[in-house]
Each structure stands twice: as C-alpha cells, then as structure tokens.
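Onboarding guide, step 5: your first structure request.
Type a short instruction followed by the sequence, for example:

Predict the 3D structure of this protein.
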Amino acid sequence: MTPRVEVLQLDVAALRGLADGDLAAANRTSPVPLTPYLAGDECRGVWEIRAVQIVEDPGSAAWITGVVWDPDRRLAVGRAGYHGPPDGDGMVEVGYSIDPQYRRQGYARAALRALIERARHEPGVRTFRATVSPDNAPSRDLVLSEGLVEVGEQWDDEDGLEIVYELPLSPS
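The system replies with structure tokens like these:
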C-alpha cells in the first residue's frame, strides 16, 4: 500500500537554514518538524539552489523542492518537487530523495504520483520529466512503472550522466 503524502513548500528562511545545515533555524519557520536528514549533506546542495532561486525568482516558490510529509504518521520523510515552473515548452522536471530510514516504504512512489497529479492539473504543463543516474535502478524502475518513457540522455555538471524520462500530459 502506498502511503499518503503531501509535498509542503518551505519559505526562504527554512530553505536557507537547511542549506546551511542549521536544522534549528529551518524548523523556526517550517510548517512541519524537519529532520537531520533534510539538513544533512545529501540534501544541502538542493536547498542552496532553491534558496537562491526563490530570492531571484519569487514566482518559482510554489514550484520548487519541498518536504515530503506523511500526514498520517506526522513525519517528514524526504524532499521532492519540481526544479521550477514550467519552461517555455510546458515541461516540468522533478527531483526527489527519501530519507534512508523511510526508503522501500512507498514514499518515493507516493511523492512522484503527487507531482504527476499536480502537473496534470496545471495549465500549460505538457511534459513531465525525471532524470535518473544510469546506476540508480530503484529510481529508474519507479519512473518506468509510473508511465514515464526513456527519451534520451544528458550530461549534468553536478550529477554526471543522466537518463531522461518523460510523460506527455494532456493540455489543460
């Protein structure tokens, strides 16, 4: 059974706290209690990018990476979201990461489904994209099982080679 999740947005103060590895500062303005994982090395780079992004482009705040929240268990289990608003072609790209202690419990699937569902209902979104490292079999299997198809590959300066998967969405 896939758990129920919400992807909750954070304000710039919480994002900055997480980017700095300062969990106490992040928790001061977060809508939910955050965890050491979210302020740890695996996540800090993403929070840094997003904290700068919403200062430079406040309109992207509703689109960027947020906290994956399990409202039933009242737990922050990871992070997920879009890299930003839809581009000029109507494409949104997603990223997600689940705290290791909550992996293999359906949270990545639940977060991915929530992001697909939102994208389906957003005017102007025509393509849903995920990029996955070739050696990340669990993530590859997840995106394929949710209907995304491989459309190519790209080089990311931070992450290296990535396989590009997309799901076409009907215009709304």
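Each response can be followed by summary notes, for example: The two ends are 30 Å apart (CA to CA).
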